[in-house]
Amino acid sequence: MQLESMYQEIILDHYKNPHARGLREPFDGESFQVNPTCGDEVTLRVKVADDGTVEDVSYEGQGCSISQASTSVMTDLVIGHSIGEAMTTMDAFTELMQGRGQVEPDEDVLDDGIAFAGVAKYPARVKCALLGWMAFKDALARTSIGAEAV
Amino acid sequence: MTTTDSLPVDVTALRADFAILSRTVRDGKPLVYLDSGATSQRPAQVLDAERRFVETANSAVHRGAHQLSEEATDAYEGARATIASFVGVSPGEVVFTKNATEGVNLVAYAMSNAATAGPESERFAVGPGDEIVVTEMEHHANLVPWQQLCQRTGATLKWFSVTADGRLDLSELDSLITERTKVVAFAHQSNVLGTVNPVEPLVRRAHEVGALVVLDACQSVPHGVYGQGAVDFGALGVDFAVFSGHKMLGPSGIGVLYGRRELLEAMPPFLTGGSMIELVRMEGSTFAPPPQRFEAGVPMTSQAVGLAAAVDYLNGVGMDRVSAHEHTLAERALAGLSEIPGVRIIGPADTADRGATVAFVVDGVHPHDVSQVLDSLGIAVRVGHHCAWPLHRACEVPATVRASFYLYNEPSEVDSLVAGVREAQRFFGVGE
């Protein structure tokens, strides 16, 4: 097995220098997610503007390179976008991760997220890659605007 | 330098019995299987015994008057006798369960049922004011059922903590186990730390106050104890004990609950239905004597036969030799891993009172990532909290990498592990 196919440079970069990390105020919704098989966890907050734009996503947590990098990439993909766009991106990322390596990722939608295509071949690591996204979706559902959208 | 020849077990010869050990993984890498603490591999002898049973005697045991049923019943009860003798108890004290988890639940639920089961079960009843004592190093299987029992009955859960070097802190033995204690449940050997816990002082104190001792022997029965050989429940003096077939070269889907005869005789059933009854009327039923009282439904038969074959296999090697061999592997693993800067052993750093399960963390590389690198080299380890989450919290680590060895592992596989950990450090740019 080529380790590099899973651990793309982009992933290692995000792992070592995560984007948008730290918990910030104010926020409209917060979620705590845990992967019960390995104990990885993330606390994530979202702030949504009145027009439905994801204004900020902030988070704290501990976990493997895949879960940390994936959460970092996610913040790049959703901050500044409408809830609708963020959901579309999330669906594309989820489809990629659950595709067992058979799904061709769309770089226009997923940007750095395409680096996780190799992770999709390892079922045990898919949960890691989705942990932050699950927290984002759940936090969004806890906001008054997001509750209707997700 | 230890060579294979000087080991108390002829590993090379023995590995030929385990077909899976000669396969390759991840693009042709020879498999290095260091996850026997989760589940062990099965030798041809176990598979052959199961197959022979299915091809010659398969039928439902303890029912039917035909020849197959007689032979199946003999095989099933013969297996019970073999397994009982292996752990130093009588066949009537061995209850077959689906796994060890079911064994612990059986006792915990029997104790809740005791509240309404009549005067002979009274000693098992727990309620408000009663206490159940466990330890912080328990596998969830020997923790959650007791938490739930407390929740159902109003009893209180208490626990021993773990010292910094991965041992049970028994300094509060007399204040934790008191006249209020009904059950003391603990692991013989930790499935994470490898620590072999001192059974004697815990049993002595528990019995002093009239509490029952439940021993989780999942990680000790398969391996024996260094210097003592096979685990002997009779000699240990515990009241109940559980272990799983699949962790000792046997099939999955079978576990054992040992209970002292007079306790099983007085304990109400957990699961009810066919096989476990004495007399059934529409108005109510009475129950068979143990062990049948605790084996409702058609039991697992080829699995019991397979587990007995596993016991024969282990006896053929000798549990004193198995434990001595594993001791050598543990020594080598602890020495090799300790030499790597940035690697920290979670558990006793020396081999005194410890088995061949070695958990560790690598500074700067998450356990998942360590195991991914090891996997790419063909090395199978366990990663995560290993069903012992509170223990990991107590050790202040979110997760660990765990290598667990068995009689079929070679010293060279320990060396592969150590080299693999160095490779993980290199890949993630930490360490030297």
Automatic annotation (TrEMBL), chain A:
SUPFAM superfamilies referenced in this protein's UniProt entry, alphabetically: SufE/NifU (SSF82649)
Span of domain NIF system FeS cluster assembly NifU N-terminal: 6-128
InterPro entries: NIF_FeS_clus_asmbl_NifU_N
Pfam families for this protein: NifU_N
Protein name per the record: SUF system NifU family Fe-S cluster assembly protein
Organism: Prauserella halophila
Automatic annotation (TrEMBL), chain B:
Necessary cofactors: pyridoxal 5'-phosphate
Record-annotated Aminotransferase class V domain positions: 32-417
Keyword Zinc among record annotations: no
One Pfam short name: Aminotran_5
SUPFAM superfamilies: PLP-dependent transferases (SSF53383)
Keyword Transferase: yes
PROSITE patterns, alphabetized: AA_TRANSFER_CLASS_5
Catalyzed chemical reaction(s): (sulfur carrier)-H + L-cysteine = (sulfur carrier)-SH + L-alanine
Keywords: Pyridoxal phosphate, Transferase
Gene3D superfamilies recorded: Aspartate Aminotransferase, domain 1, Type I PLP-dependent aspartate aminotransferase-like (Major domain)
EC number: 2.8.1.7
Record's function text: Catalyzes the removal of elemental sulfur and selenium atoms from L-cysteine, L-cystine, L-selenocysteine, and L-selenocystine to produce L-alanine.
Family membership: Belongs to the class-V pyridoxal-phosphate-dependent aminotransferase family. Csd subfamily.
Protein name: Cysteine desulfurase
Taxonomy of the source species: Bacteria, Bacillati, Actinomycetota, Actinomycetes, Pseudonocardiales
